[in-house]
Design goal:
The chain has helices at about 1-50, 55-115, 140-150, 165-180, 185-200, 215-225, 240-245, 260-265, 285-290, 290-295, 350, 380-390, 395-415, 420-435, 440-450, 465-480, 485-495; strands at about 200-205, 230, 245-250, 255, 275-280, 305, 320, 325, 330-340, 355-360. With about 500 residues, the protein is of the alpha/beta class. It has a five-stranded parallel beta sheet with strand order 2-5-9-1-10. A three-stranded antiparallel beta sheet has the order 6-8-7. A hairpin with a 4-residue loop joins strand 3 (about 245-250) and strand 4.
Length: about 500
């Protein structure tokens, strides 16, 4: 203990001494540059000028004049640049402050002249009985959302009965879906859905038609008392403007889509918000959703800024900052996909960034308990996820097995887990286990959906022996009768050869 204390004392002594040298050295340099060195320069000139002739003195005086001019000009430029920087910063700050004040004033004027209507929650697509907006506003629906929330974020009020564990959320949800909607989901599907929320902001529900892909987020939205926004993807979508909307130069209004209004509405809420892109592969996902794919990978959510308009104007919605809207952390994008000839294939760029759930079978009907819906905030769910990460870390045995499996697949099939897939695995498995499922079952899901799925692009007729060797390696690393989903996919490939 004494040795440690001595080391800590010496460490801080050295640290603060070095810090003092840095600060004192800076101010010493300033002093020498303006006061100390000019005096030394003068004495140095006097010493050297003893033997100067007339020409030497003329050249010296000319050099001194030129040097002084350059010296003064350099400092004038530096001072001007500093002044210009602070002047520009102040102008920009004043500009944003003025715009915000004018926005608030414009809204107060609108509130003073509005026709107040008592009734249920506003329907943004219904123009009857709505407050009339100021004629200068280019956003109609988004400003109505500002008015609906009175510019204040809506808190999520949770009672003790709402504070469930992850496994309890799974149980309550499948019972609620059965008893209230006559829709049935297995514990595995519900657990995969919850773990998918922890893994990525993008989920893909795929499979044959009629298995409840769209119903899953719809019923879950009902369960958490915040209806999911279901957006029908159009085959004509080629870029984000058809999904997000665009400014119409002819009408001088912004064409606000349902996707944009749902995204903006979530910025005022603190609960879970689901935006469903129904039949997302009717158009090319990597085209219209490209900006979101890139932004949602950034580790800092403050950088999730999507441009709506090039600049901010008076009357624009309150949560648009310099024409940009920050994608709220409490939003998840859920795409449903049918695998048939009428749709586009979903590329690896999309799959690698998303959590995918295959829904090719309907769950068996059962009589669920009559359980109430719950309120759940984003912060509470996020805290459940963080707790699960600590309590259910992947076992060292399975990590070693995954490393060996990665080496074999990489060398044999030129497909690797990569950092992105490994990060998703570290997030998915603990949540899946906390939902009441097994670790090996979660590993099977990741291997099947993230790795084995990519084998479809390989020249499989020449890889039959390698596939059979991989099946044997599964048994060696994880035990027999494990990784059932991954094995079934490989056996299907072998049968097709």
């Amino acid at each position: 203990m004494d040795h440690f204390s001595n080391w800590v004392v010496e460490f801080f002594k050295t640290f603060f001494l070095d810090l003092w040298y840095l600060i004192s050295g800076f101010f010493t340099g300033i002093y020498n540059l303006f006061i100390g060195y000019p005096i030394e320069y003068y004495h140095y000139l006097m010493d050297k000028s003893i033997n100067f002739n007339l020409i030497d003195w003329i050249l010296s005086i000319g050099f001194i004049i030129i040097f002084i001019l350059l010296y003064v000009m350099t400092w004038l430029i530096i001072v001007q640049l500093i002044k210009r920087y602070f002047r520009f910063s102040k102008i920009e700050f004043d500009k944003m402050t003025l715009l915000n004040q004018m926005n608030m004033l414009e809204r107060k004027v609108r509130d003073a002249t509005v026709i107040h209507v008592e009734g249920p929650k506003l329907n943004l697509n219904d123009t009857k009985g709505k407050p009339k907006l100021a004629t200068g506003s280019r956003f109609t629906k988004l400003n109505l959302i500002d008015d609906k929330y009175k510019y204040t974020v809506l808190p999520t009020l949770m009672t003790n009965k709402d504070k469930l564990s992850l496994s309890e959320i799974v149980t309550h949800f499948i019972n609620y879906a059965s008893s209230h909607h006559n829709i049935y989901y297995s514990e595995k599907i519900a657990s995969t859905f919850i773990a998918g929320l922890a893994t990525s902001k993008i989920l893909i529900l795929e499979g044959i038609s009629g298995t409840g892909k769209t119903s899953l987020p719809y019923v879950f939205g009902k369960f958490i008392k915040n209806d999911a926004s279901i957006i029908s993807v159009q085959p004509s979508w080629r870029d984000r403007f058809e999904m997000m909307g665009y400014y119409n130069e002819f009408t001088k209004k912004f064409n606000e889509t349902e996707f944009l209004t749902s995204l903006y509405d979530a910025s005022y809420r603190t609960d879970i918000n689901l935006i469903v892109l129904d039949e997302m592969n009717l158009a090319r996902v990597e085209y219209y959703f490209a900006d979101f794919l890139s932004l949602l990978e950034l580790p800092n959510s403050d950088e999730w800024l999507i441009e709506v308009v090039p600049e901010q104007l008076i009357g624009d919605p309150m949560h648009l900052k310099e024409g940009q809207l920050q994608i709220p952390k409490n939003v998840w994008f859920i795409g449903t996909a049918n695998n048939d000839d009428s749709t586009f294939g979903i590329t690896d760029k999309v799959y690698d960034r998303a959590s995918s759930i295959v829904m090719n079978e309907k769950a068996k009907p059962f009589k669920g308990q009559m359980l109430d819906r719950i309120n759940i905030s984003y912060d509470y769910l996020d805290e459940l996820f963080k707790t699960a990460y600590k309590e259910h870390e992947i076992s060292n045995k399975n990590l070693v097995a995954l490393e060996k499996l990665d080496e074999f697949i990489s060398e044999t099939f030129q497909i690797t887990f990569g950092n992105r897939i490994m990060n998703q695995l570290y997030k998915f498995i603990p949540i899946y286990v906390a939902c009441g499922r097994s670790e090996i079952e979660g590993i099977d899901y990741i291997i099947a959906r993230k790795i084995i799925r990519k084998f479809e692009t390989l020249n499989l007729p020449f890889l039959k022996n390698e596939l059979e060797t991989l099946l044997q390696l599964f048994d060696q690393l994880f035990g027999k009768n494990q990784l059932k989903e991954s094995k079934d996919m490989i056996l299907k490939f072998i049968k097709q050869i």
